[in-house]
Amino acid sequence: MQSKDLLQLAEQFGSPLYVYDAEKIKSQYNRLTKAFSKVEKLRINYAMKALSNVAILELLRDMGSGLDTVSIQEVLLGLHAGYSPEKIFYTPNGVSLEEIEEVNAMGVQINIDNLSILEQFGAKHPNVPVCIRINPHVMAGGNTNISVGHIDSKFGISIHQLPHLVRIVENTKMNIVGIHMHTGSDILDIEVFLYAAEILFDAARNFKNLEFLDFGSGFKVPYKKDDIETDIEELGKKLSKRFNAFCTEYGKELTLIFEPGKFLVSEAGQFLVKVNVIKQTTSTVFAGIDSGFNHLIRPMLYGSQHHIENISNPKGKERFYSVVGYICETDTFANNRRIPEIKEGDILSFRNAGAYCYSMASNYNSRYKPAEVLWFEGQGHLIRAHETFEDLIKNQISLPLPAKV
Ligand SMILES: Cc1ncc(COP(=O)(O)O)c(C=O)c1O
C-alpha cells in the first residue's frame, strides 16, 4: 500500500479513517507459524481484543487461525465471523460464574483465572475440560498497564498457590486440559519467555490429562524504522526445542498455543487524519487534527509513540510540531516531533494503528467513530462505515416531559 493509495482512500472515504493491510496480517501470521514449524501441533489464537472488526476476523479464520476472546460478546462476534466453537478460547478476568457457564454451554474452551470460580465451576461441572491461567510472577512488558504477570497483577492464579489449585482439582475431580500464562505486552527479551516457559512446564507436571500449553503473547513489534522487536525466529528455535523436549518427558504430543494481538495486526494498520489547524504559539507549532483520544487513546494511556508521516508532503522540509487532537482535554499525540512541513488540509498517517486503536475508540465529546477500510488484493474495501447522528442517539431514551410551548 503506497501513500498515493492512502491519499485516495482518505479522499474516497473521508477522514479520520482506519486502513488495514491484509497482506501484512497474512505475512505476520505466516512468519509466526514458520518460526514454530518444528512443533508438531501449533495453534495461533488471534487475540481479537486488538482489532475486532468482523472482516479481520474472517480473514484470519480463512488462514486457519483460532480466536482468543475475553468476553461473551467477543465470543458471539467470533461465532458470527464463522469460527466454530472449538476454535475459540475464552480467557476472561473477573467475570461472573454465570458468564463462564454461558460461554461453556456454547462449546468454547474456557480458561479460569482464579481459585474461587475454579472451585465453584469444578463442583458444578467436573467433566468439562478446563484450562487454568497461571500467574508466573515474571515482571515483563513495556508499561505497567500491560505488564500482567507480576506479583501485584490481578491476572491469573499465583504460581505460589499451586498446591491449593491442585487440591481443588483433586477434590472436584475436574478435567484440566490446559495451562495458560500471559505475562504482558511488548516483551523484548526472549529469555523472559523462556524463563516463564519453565515455570509453566513445572506447573504442567502436576496435571496428567493435558492437551495443550498456552504461552499467551506479548511479542514486541517495531514502531518505527530500526526499532527493536522480539526476535520471533530465535524464540521459535529455542522455545520449540524446549517444548518438544517437554512433550517427550510428559509422554504426549501437546499443542503449543500462542494468542498474539499486536504481532498480527499492529503494523498492518494506519490511521489517517486531516490537519484542521496550524497554530503557532510562543512555545511550539501545533498541528490540530480532526481526531483525538476518542479515536486513538494509546499515546495518552500508555505513552505509546506512533510514528507520524505527512503523506501529503512526504519530501517537505522537516520542522518540529506538537500534534494534538480536537478533544476538550489535552490530547497530545506527539510532542516536538520532526515531521515534513505540515499545511492545513494535509493528511497525516499514524503508523502501528492496527492493534488497540479502533477497538479502544469511544464517542467521547459525542464524536462519531471513524470508518475502517481493509486493503485487500490491491483494493480498499470498506469494512465499517463511519457513524452517523442516528448511531449516537439510537439507544438513548428521552424523558416523557411535557412539550414546551
Ligand atoms: C490474555 C491475553 N492474551 C493475549 C493478549 C495479546 O497481547 P499482544 O497484543 O501483546 O499480543 C493479551 C493482551 O492484553 C492478553 O491479555
Discrete helix count: 12
The CATH topology annotation of the largest domain reads as TIM Barrel
SS strand fraction: 15-25%
Task: Give the CA-based shape.
Answer: globular
Terminal CA distance: 57 Å
- List all distinct small molecules, including ions and cofactors, that are bound in this structure: pyridoxal-5'-phosphate
- Let me know the largest β-sheet: 9 strands, mixed
> Please, what is the CATH homologous superfamily of the largest domain?
Alanine racemase
What's the CATH C level of the largest domain? Alpha Beta
Query: What's the structural domain tally?
Result: 2
Family: Belongs to the Orn/Lys/Arg decarboxylase class-II family. LysA subfamily.
Domain Orn/DAP/Arg decarboxylase 2 C-terminal: 18-354
Keywords: Amino-acid biosynthesis, Decarboxylase, Lyase, Lysine biosynthesis, Pyridoxal phosphate
Subunit structure: Homodimer.
What does the model show?
By secondary structure, this protein is an alpha/beta fold. The chain folds into two domains: 36-265, Alanine racemase (TIM Barrel, Alpha-Beta Barrel); 269-384, Lyase, Ornithine Decarboxylase, Chain A, domain 1. 30% of the residues lie in helices and 24% in strands. The chain contains twelve helices and 18 strands. The chain has helices spanning 3-13, 22-35, 54-62, 72-80, 97-105, 115-124, 162-172, 190-204, 232-250, 262-265, 298-302, 389-393, and strands spanning 17-21, 42-47, 66-69, 88-90, 109-112, 129-135, 157-158, 175-180, 212-214, 255-258, 269-280, 285-289, 308-310, 318-324, 332-340, 347-350, 371-376, 379-384. Strands 1, 11, 12, 13, 14, 15, 16, 17 and 18 form a nine-stranded mixed sheet that branches. Strands 2-3-4-5-6-8-9-10 form an eight-stranded parallel barrel, surrounded by five helices. Helix 2 (22-35) crosses helix 9 and helix 6 (115-124) packs parallel to helix 7 (162-172). It is globular and about 65 Å long. The model has no long low-confidence stretch (mean pLDDT 94).
